[in-house]
Every structure is written in structure tokens, then in C-alpha cells.
TrEMBL record, chain A:
GO biological process, one term: protein N-linked glycosylation
Name of the protein: KLLA0A06215p
Cross-referenced PANTHER family: ALPHA-1,6-MANNOSYLTRANSFERASE MNN11-RELATED
Record's keyword terms, sorted: Glycosyltransferase, Transferase
Gene Ontology annotations for the cellular component aspect, listed alphabetically: mannan polymerase complex
Species per Swiss-Prot/TrEMBL record: Kluyveromyces lactis (strain ATCC 8585 / CBS 2359 / DSM 70799 / NBRC 1267 / NRRL Y-1140 / WM37) (Yeast)
UniProtKB/TrEMBL annotation, chain B:
TM helices/strands, residue ranges: 35-57
Annotated protein name in UniProt: KLLA0C15477p
Organism of provenance: Kluyveromyces lactis (strain ATCC 8585 / CBS 2359 / DSM 70799 / NBRC 1267 / NRRL Y-1140 / WM37) (Yeast)
Gene Ontology CC: one annotated term: Golgi membrane
GO molecular function, one term: glycosyltransferase activity
Any one Pfam family match given in the protein's UniProt record, by short name: Glyco_transf_34
Family of this protein: Belongs to the glycosyltransferase 34 family.
One GO term (biological process): protein N-linked glycosylation
Length: 412, 331
């Protein structure tokens, strides 16, 4: 226990005594001791100055943080989405018309993009819009990835990330999807970050929508983190899904620790038939990644939340690592996450696996009519926060179902 | 009876006085017994509650020395010279740790069955780091040192040699020195992050013979991610330096790892003897220079066709001459 002086006056008194003693001593010992005292003071000053850090160290240049493109364009609004009306022209141009195709000696074809690509100036934009529509659309497409929102004041807390696909979906479908996100974000002062999925093709090795759509999702979330540096949550929500309750904020639906704690699945297998289980004692306050788990026990990648924390970034960067991405997974993104959670307890500790009703109620045509209890727990019911059309690609019903349900949102 | 009476009497008299006196003492003690007991118990509780202790506090820096890294166990007998190298090396670190109040742990890196599969070879260093971090939860830095190293300037503390001037000596990017030609300008890396891992590069890339890690959440996460079966399954034939190559791959591809790693010049904590990096004989960046008083010498790869014992003896002698004082001639 350190001794703490309670009476300060005592000390000052003794200090005075000490000073007077010194004076007396100096008086007695005249000039020689005066000289000694001065030299001691000078020595002490010298020691002090030499121990201070010198300011001469050359300023070492730290490179600036940037996204996939080195240049960025400031967005005036937190609602970032591409000009969807270019859909037709983009489809006409195709991926081969948007990126440079590089073919090496072995005949490997690869689309590449230029990280140092400069954005269009206002003059160029005006000129191109009138003279060369195709080139204008291409440049707009390439510039969209450079948009960032770095306005610190009024920065959105939540950003909704969606990727849209002009090759496989119609303009109406895309308009409905984007409008739904924008409507929702506007109500709650959230941001949106909608990108063309094709923008990310040069970053993956299997450069087609069919092979890489799933792995473009984490790339898009990572890009969103760069575009919104002060946001706290990034919610990826698939294009084949709609937010049905526009008035419910994501915080009250899922993010608040109390709500999240109720939704977390504790001590369940990480994915179907896994030997690794989620933690029995999970602190919802420390959750950095939130992934819903379907009724069948699969990890649902159509809707998930990542925070821009060390764990959140590690999660995305791990999945985006070419070694991980190109591994022959049984079912791509889902398996990669499953593997990550199984093998890396530090990530698992910060990952909340939640019930699907929170942010991923799956639409099932047969279960809507409130039949079995099981379906009630997992599938979409009227009044649920969101609806996802997982599996609609196989039955080719995405556009019809989404359009049908979009009318229901409107009535709200 | 009569004969005994006076004696008994006097005895009683004699005894009575001191007895009275004694009982006086006892009564006065019993009077204050309660207070003494209270005082004692309060002091006792304070002692347990406060972090006061007579032994030194937990160290802020812990040095990890891995021994038996060249196989060992049942595969190879440890030769007399290997024992001697180990002894000198550990003694060198022990003296250094003692001088500056650092912690020291010696970890066995002998080839065990757990790590014998080619997929799992790189696991061990990571496991040892994790284990040590659990043992010293309050330490700030961990310094890993291979056994074939010698601290040549033991008077330098790590604070004054490294931590206090990280901005001057450490490089956050590979632009200045990049033997592996890893892409230097990648997306999403925030180089302004504090460095949690300090490593060096030799002529062949990252060198993990001597490196430092800070006790942070990032470090724990990296140690968790570092060994991943997906990477090893695909690359175990290519990654001949195991965890070193794995770290290079992680550094190249994952921005969250890159932004917390800083590079020190090799000679700052890991200078080579002339035999190592033999293809770059004239590149002064790699090799120990006694005139410039390099901090640590690492006889990396000395068991591949070089003489470990000879080098160890040479540098031990050199260290003695470098630190000879003028008054040592009198002893």
C-alpha cells in the first residue's frame, strides 16, 4: 500500500524549512557552493533536453487507404446505387465490353481492371452523354465503384449492401429491389450501397455470375466498409429479397443486445452435422458477425450483418482470400463460412448464429398458409420483417414472386 | 510437614511476585487483543486485495526461446555441441532478461507426432505463441527467438532499441525492400494502424527467427487464422518454410493482417553471419557488423552445411571482447 500524504500543508512547511536551510548553508559556504549548485542545475537541464525526442526524424510517408480503385469520388448522399436505367445498354455491352480481356500465352482469358483508373470529370460526363452513349455507360459503370461517403456528420449507422445482376434479371426486378432498399434506408437514416455484381468480376478467378455470385457478396461488403468509414453495421441483403416492414429499424429488429441475445442460437452445431457447436455462453454485446441459420441448419448467406471491427474484417478478408475462395467447396460461400467457424474459435466466439425469422424469413409457397409449427418457426409469414426468395433461381420464379410481394410492401 | 513448610512458603512467596508481574502483562495484552487482532486482519485483507507483493511484478516483455528445433526427440540424438549451443544461448537470454526485468520462457520445439504430418508442420510455432500468451496474460510484448541466436548488446533494452522509436526504424510497407515482390499497393489497408507484429525480411523473404508480437486481440486472431487447413492442403508442397510462407500468403492477400505488420531492418533484431544468404555476400543490409554494434546475431540455417558450434563460439568470444571493460585487466 503506498503511503498517501493527507496533509499537504505539512509538506509545504517542510519544503519551506528545507529552502531556508539551504539559504543558510549557501550563506555560510559562500560563492563556491553557489557555483556548484548552478553547475548541478545546468547538468540536470542538459539531461532533460537530451532525453526529449528530437523532432528531426524525417516524416515517413504512410500510403493512404483506398478501395479497389486508387481514386475516389465523394458521394453527396449516403444512398449509393448505380444508375439502373443503364441496364439495357450494359446488357448490350456485356462483361467483355466493360473490362479489358487479357489472354496469356496459355490461352487463359481473364478480365482485368485498372486500379489507377481516373473518374470522369464533369465536362467529360456532359460531352460523353451526348456523343457516345455506350462509352458514357461504360465509364459510369466503372466510376460507380469509386463512390464513397465520408461525411462524418450525419453518417449512417447502418448500411444496407446489395448486389444487382444485369445479366440475369430484368430492369423491373432491379428497380423494385433497389427502390425497396432506398425506401427503407431513407426512413431510418441508413445508407445503401448497391453495386452491379459484374463490377467485381475482375477480382475473382472464376469470372462468371454463375460461378462467383456467392463470393462477390463478401467483396461487396468489404467495398462498402471502405465507402462508409464511420458506419457501425453492414447488412448484406440479397437482391432476391424484400424488406416487408419498412418501419422496423434494424436495431430494434436485431442489433440491440437484448434482442440479439434472444435470437442467438447457443450450443447448436455450426452447420448441419458439424461436430463443432456454438458457444453456450455467448455475450450478445460482443457479437461482430451475425448470420442466420435456416431451419435445415444451413448458414444463410442471403442476409447477414458484419461490423467493421477486426473480427468483421478478418471474416471478410479470409473469405476473400483467393486460396479460400478457390478451394473446391461443396457449396461455395456457405461452406467457406462453415469452415471458418469450425476451425477458428476466435471468430466463432464473435459470431452470432441467429434464428432465420430475424433477417432471413425464407419464402416457401406451400408454408405461407400457416400450417405446420415447423414452417411457422422458419418460413416467411405475413408480418415478418423481411422475405427472401432463396432457391428461386432453380424454379425461375424470382421475378414473379418478388414482384408479387413488392405490391404488398407498397400497400403498407 | 513442618520441615517442608518454610520451604514451601518461601517458594510460594518467590513465585508469587513474578507470577503477579506476568499476569499483569497477560492482562494488558488481553485488553488490547481485540484491537491487535483487528489490525492484523485488516492488514491481511488489504494485503490480499491490493497488488502489493515483494516479488517483482509481472513482466511487460516476455522472451520466448524455442529449443530442440532441429528435430530432436526420437529422430535424432542431440549431440554434445547442440547441448552446448543451447546452454550458451539460454544463458545469454537469461542474463538479458534478468538485466532488464523481462520474462523468459524456454519452449520445446522437438518434432512431435502431433505436428509430424506435412500439413501440420507449421503449427508448432503458433501453438507455442498461443500457449505463452495464455501464460502471461498481462505482458505487452512477446519476443520470439530461435535457439541459434545471441543478443550481442545486452545493455540495450527493447524499449530504447525498438519500442520507443518504432516510427523511425519500422517500415509499414514493402516499398523500400521487397525480396518476394509482393504487391505493395493493395486495397483497404489502413497503414496508420499501430503495429502489433514486428518482423524482419532476409534475402529470401519473411524471417521468423526473431520477431515480436504485441499482446492484442489482433494477435490472438492472427494466431488463430495463421494455421488453416485450406491453405495447407493446397500449398503444402510449395510452402517449404511452412508458417513463414503461410504468413507471407496471409500478408499478401488479407488487408486486416497487412495493416498491423511492420518490418524492421534485418540487422535491428536479426543480423546474419556471413554464411547465411551466401548469394548476397556484398549486401550489407543482411550481415552482422561488430563496428556498428548490431543487437542480435542469428546463425540462421547454420545446421545446413555450416558449423553451428563454431559460429556460436566465435560470436560468444566476440561478444566478450566487445564488452570488455578497461578495469577487467585487474581481475
Amino acid at each position: 500500500m503506498p503511503f498517501i500524504p493527507k496533509n499537504k500543508k505539512k509538506w509545504t512547511k517542510s519544503f519551506k524549512v528545507w529552502i531556508s536551510e539551504l539559504k543558510f548553508y549557501l550563506h555560510k559556504r559562500n560563492k563556491f557552493s553557489m557555483l556548484l549548485l548552478i553547475s548541478v542545475i545546468i547538468f540536470l537541464l542538459y539531461e532533460l533536453t537530451s532525453s526529449l525526442p528530437s523532432k528531426s526524424s524525417a516524416g515517413y510517408r504512410i500510403p493512404k487507404t483506398h478501395g479497389m480503385y486508387q481514386n475516389e469520388v465523394q458521394s453527396s448522399t449516403p444512398l449509393i446505387f448505380p444508375s439502373v436505367q443503364d441496364h439495357g445498354t450494359l446488357k448490350e455491352l456485356g462483361v467483355e465490353g466493360l473490362f479489358t480481356l487479357r489472354i496469356d500465352v496459355d490461352g487463359n482469358r481473364e478480365y482485368v481492371f485498372k486500379p489507377e483508373d481516373t473518374p470522369m470529370t464533369e465536362a467529360e460526363r456532359k460531352e460523353l452523354a451526348e456523343t457516345d452513349k455506350k462509352k458514357f455507360v461504360k465509364r459510369t459503370f466503372l466510376d460507380h465503384g469509386k463512390l464513397v461517403y465520408k461525411n462524418k456528420a450525419n453518417h449512417p449507422e447502418v448500411v444496407i449492401v446489395t448486389i444487382i445482376d444485369f445479366e440475369n434479371y430484368s430492369l423491373d426486378h432491379i428497380i423494385n429491389t433497389v427502390q425497396n432498399r432506398v425506401d427503407y434506408a431513407q426512413r431510418h437514416n441508413y445508407g445503401t450501397y448497391v453495386r452491379w455484381a459484374q463490377e467485381f468480376l475482375p477480382q475473382v478467378q472464376k469470372q462468371s455470375m454463375e460461378a462467383s455470385y456467392e463470393f462477390i457478396k463478401p467483396l461487396a461488403v468489404r467495398a462498402a466498409m471502405n465507402a462508409f468509414p464511420y458506419a457501425k453495421y453492414f447488412w448484406f441483403f440479397d437482391q432476391n429479397g424484400l424488406i416487408m416492414q419498412l418501419d422496423t429499424s434494424l436495431q430494434q429488429q436485431l442489433l440491440e443486445p437484448k434482442v440479439l441475445d434472444a435470437a442467438v442460437l447457443k450450443s447448436v452445431p455450426v452447420f448441419e452435422k458439424s461436430n463443432i457447436k456454438t458457444y453456450k455462453h455467448f455475450d450478445a454485446k460482443t457479437a461482430k458477425i451475425i448470420i442466420p441459420k435456416t431451419g435445415a441448419g444451413k448458414l444463410d448467406t442471403s442476409s447477414f450483418v458484419v461490423t467493421p471491427s477486426i473480427h468483421g474484417k478478418a471474416f471478410l478478408d479470409y473469405i476473400n482470400d483467393p486460396l479460400v475462395r478457390n478451394y473446391p467447396w461443396p457449396s461455395s460461400f456457405t461452406s467457406a463460412i462453415g469452415h471458418l467457424l469450425q476451425w477458428h474459435p476466435r471468430i466463432l466466439k464473435r459470431t452470432a448464429l441467429v434464428v432465420p425469422k430475424t433477417i432471413a424469413s425464407v419464402y416457401s409457397p406451400s408454408a405461407v398458409k400457416k400450417q405446420a409449427d415447423d414452417a411457422e418457426r422458419f418460413n416467411y409469414m405475413d408480418g415478418d420483417f423481411v422475405i427472401t426468395f432463396t432457391g428461386c433461381e432453380a424454379s425461375k420464379t424470382c421475378e414473379i414472386e418478388l414482384d408479387k410481394h413488392y405490391q404488398l410492401v407498397k400497400q403498407d | 510437614m513442618t520441615s517442608s513448610t518454610p520451604y514451601e512458603y518461601s517458594y510460594e512467596l518467590d513465585e508469587k511476585k513474578p507470577l503477579n508481574l506476568d499476569s499483569n502483562y497477560v492482562s494488558s495484552f488481553s485488553k488490547y487483543k481485540r484491537y491487535v487482532l483487528w489490525l492484523f486482519s485488516i492488514l491481511f485483507i488489504l494485503f490480499w486485495l491490493s497488488d502489493f507483493s515483494l516479488v517483482a511484478a509481472e513482466p511487460k516483455v516476455v522472451i520466448i526461446v524455442a529449443v530442440n528445433s532441429g528435430g530432436g526427440g526420437v529422430l535424432k540424438w542431440k549431440s554434445e555441441q547442440e547441448w552446448a549451443i543451447e546452454r550458451i544461448s539460454i544463458e545469454n537470454k537469461r542474463a538479458y532478461a534478468k538485466r532488464h526485468g523481462y520474462g523468459l520462457v524456454i519452449k520445446d520445439q522437438a518434432l512431435s507426432k502431433r505436428y509430424s504430418h506435412e500439413y501440420r508442420e507449421g503449427w508448432q510455432k503458433v501453438d507455442i505463441m498461443k500457449q505463452t500468451m495464455r501464460e502471461f496474460p498481462n505482458a505487452e510484448w512477446f519476443w520470439w527467438l530461435d535457439v541459434e541466436t545471441l543478443i550481442m548488446e545486452p545493455q540495450l533494452s527493447l524499449e530504447e532499441h525498438i519500442f520507443d522509436r518504432l516510427d523511425e526504424i519500422a517500415n509499414k510497407t514493402l516499398e523500400a525492400f521487397n525480396p518476394l515482390h509482393i504487391a505493395t499497393d493493395v486495397a483497404y489497408v489502413d497503414y496508420s494502424q499501430p503495429s502489433d507484429m514486428l518482423i524482419t525480411q532476409d534475402c529470401g523473404g519473411f524471417n521468423l527467427g526473431s520477431f515480436l508480437m504485441r499482446n492484442t486481440e489482433w494477435t490472438e486472431l492472427l494466431l488463430d487464422i495463421w494455421w488453416d487447413p485450406v491453405g495447407y492442403e493446397q500449398k503444402h508442397m510449395v510452402w517449404e518454410h511452412r508458417e513463414q510462407d503461410a504468413l507471407e500468403a496471409l500478408y499478401a492477400n488479407e488487408p486486416w493482417i497487412r495493416e498491423k505488420i511492420a518490418f524492421l531492418p534485418l540487422r535491428q533484431i536479426n543480423a546474419f553471419p556471413p554464411g547465411a544468404c551466401a548469394d548476397f555476400k556484398y549486401d550489407l543490409r543482411y550481415f552482422y557488423n561488430e563496428k556498428e554494434h548490431d543487437f542480435v546475431v542469428n546463425m540462421a540455417g547454420c545446421n545446413f552445411g555450416r558449423d553451428c558450434w563454431g559460429e556460436m563460439r566465435q560470436y560468444t568470444q566476440l561478444m566478450q571482447t566487445l564488452h570488455r571493460r578497461w578495469y577487467s585487466m585487474f581481475f
